[in-house]
Design goal:
- By secondary structure, this protein is of the alpha/beta class.
- It folds into two domains: about 180 residues, Ribosomal Protein S5, domain 2, CATH 3.30.230.10; about 210 residues, Rossmann fold (3-Layer(aba) Sandwich), CATH 3.40.50.300.
- About 35% of the residues lie in helices and about 15% in strands.
- The chain is built from 21 helices and 18 strands.
- Strands 11-14-17-10-18 form a five-stranded parallel β-sheet. Strands 1-2-4-3 form a four-stranded mixed β-sheet. Strands 5-8-9 form a three-stranded parallel β-sheet, with helices on both faces.
- Helix 5 links the parallel strand 8 and strand 9.
- The longest helix is centred in the last third of the chain and has 18 residues.
- The chain starts with a strand and ends in a 5-residue tail after the last helix.
């Protein structure tokens, strides 16, 4: 009789149940693993043989055939080791009974201990939908898996513990945790807004960006504070909700970036890739596509310092995610969609030497060099960046004296949270969370303006040749500014303020 053991794998964030079928035939002793496995799966033959023997159990003296079904799905990694070992031991009647409502995840060491694997939290959460009632995971993955509330989770340190548990001669440790108990409601960074000298306009712009999840591009001379402002930005973002924390932890789990001791992601991510990063590194990819920087920045910040230094091909791949809040990675085998709802913060110099428009240093660049430098950021990409501001060199007074009444990050954050709560209440039936996610249909519904504002926008369209997308984004920014002012309706002053934050590059 064929023994069937349940395991699982991830393709993107989608969960696929894998049936590990084990049988023996009268032939020379060997192990045959079929089912489109990669090198790590094929190499499990030796791990299984020695792990079972070193755990004190006998290994079959006939040919063992293991099929990983469905056969047309590519299997990667060592996550199936434990399931295959349980199948062999069940076939040898060492394990008396295994039901198909129990799944097994884990990599085996040669001594029979069970090593941690990636993607445990999304797998455990997804298996509930496949009618699985309990999952045995590596002990080191137990803390991560425990944030799934729908299914029984057991942590095992070695193969012997699993055998004893299945034969009802022993117990495995269980753990249940609530993400709400771990969320970090404060966000302390190395840079506080009160420590940043001057740049009052940039601080207001970043406050608006945090309140409505708008993208920002800062242009200014070297040393004007662009990077410091970006580094301080996470300190004014609202805390993660429980669902956002679980969602982020799943992403980081399949990427192998969680800490097994403290697996839950409790703070909004801040990703700052180097300008040598490739398009695949930014969007994600590989034979079994893994998340890239824009997905790792989901619900947080993607900071591109010296933005024009990134290859144009890399910058252009941001256009679709900025518009749709997800990225689609197409391969011959499959197509994977990852979430990518992030706030983009870009920083750049106004010209190659960095001193165009500077009050103290003269620019040495030719007009051709300046135009070529600026052209690295295409019009369609700039059109998707809501707020575009200049960050000028600090004056002598600003540099030497820090005003005592400057707002700190904690005070700004309270305003941001209040504005976000207004948006959550407004859009509770629209399946969106912030003003930046408004669709054209929802803009017409929630961004109504009076005649004075319409006339102001009409003049701006004629003067600056605004596109339809730019027009919509101005209304979104105006809606956020109104929320920060605790105003129910968008007023002309909000439109004027929004226009001042657009198109200065």
């Amino acid at each position: 009789m064929v023994i069937k053991i349940i395991s699982a794998t991830t393709i993107g964030l989608d969960i696929h149940k894998i049936s590990v079928e084990v049988d023996v035939t009268n032939s020379l002793p060997q192990i045959a693993i079929v089912g489109l496995g990669d090198t790590a799966v094929i190499e499990a033959k030796e791990r299984l043989k020695l792990a079972i023997k070193n755990s004190g159990y006998s290994f079959p003296t006939t040919k063992v055939v293991i099929n990983l079904a469905p056969a047309n799905l590519k299997k990667e990694g060592a996550i199936y080791d434990l399931a295959m070992a349980v199948g062999i031991l069940a076939k040898e009647n060492i394990i008396k009974e295994v039901d198909e409502e129990t799944a097994f995840l884990g990599e085996l060491s040669l001594d029979g201990s069970i090593r941690p694997v990636n993607g445990v939290l999304p797998i455990v959460s997804g298996l509930f939908e496949h009618n699985i009632k309990r999952v045995i995971v590596p002990f080191e993955n137990l803390a991560e898996a425990s944030f799934s509330s729908e299914i029984e989770i057991f942590g095992a340190k070695n193969l012997v513990e699993v055998v004893e548990f299945l034969n009802k001669n022993g117990e495995l440790k269980q753990l249940k945790q609530n993400a709400d108990d771990f969320l970090d409601v404060s966000y302390e960074t190395t840079v506080d807004f009160k420590d940043i000298k001057g740049q009052s306009q940039a601080k207001v712009a970043l406050q608006i960006a945090a309140a409505g999840a708008h993208n920002v591009l800062m242009s200014g001379s070297p040393g004007s504070g662009k990077t410091m402002l970006a580094r301080a930005f996470p300190s004014i973002l609202p805390p993660l909700t429980k669902n956002e924390a679980i969602e982020l932890t799943k992403i980081y789990s399949i990427s192998g970036l969680v800490d097994n001791k403290f697996p839950l992601i409790t703070k909004r991510p801040f990703r700052s890739p180097h300008h040598s990063a490739s398009a695949v590194g930014i969007t994600g990819g590989g034979s079994n596509p893994k998340p890239g920087e824009i997905t790792l920045a989901h619900r947080g910040v993607l900071f591109l310092d010296e933005m024009p230094e990134f290859p144009r091909s890399v910058l252009e791949v941001l256009r679709q995610p900025l518009e749709e809040n997800f990225v689609t990675i197409s391969r011959a085998q499959n197509t994977i969609k990852y979430p990518a709802n992030f706030i983009l913060i870009g920083a750049m110099n106004p010209c190659p030497c960095g001193f165009l428009g500077d009050k103290k240093k003269q620019c040495k660049c030719s007009e051709f060099q300046i135009n070529r430098y600026k052209s690295r950021l295409s019009g369609p990409l700039l059109d998707r960046i809501d707020i575009q501001i200049n960050v000028p060199r600090l004056t002598d007074e600003e540099l030497i004296n820090i005003k005592p009444d400057v707002e700190n990050s904690s005070d700004i954050r309270k305003k941001v949270i209040k504005a976000r709560n207004i948006q959550l209440e407004r859009y509770k039936n629209e399946n969106i969370y912030t003003n930046s996610e408004l669709t054209p249909k929802l803009i017409n519904k929630y961004c109504k303006i009076d005649e004075t504002s319409k006339e102001m926008l009409k003049n701006a369209i004629n003067r600056f040749n605004l596109s339809a997308r730019s027009y919509d984004r101005i209304l979104k920014i105006s809606r956020t500014i109104a929320d920060l002012d605790l105003c129910e309706n968008i007023e002309p002053k909000h439109i004027a303020s929004a226009l001042s934050f657009r198109g200065l590059i």
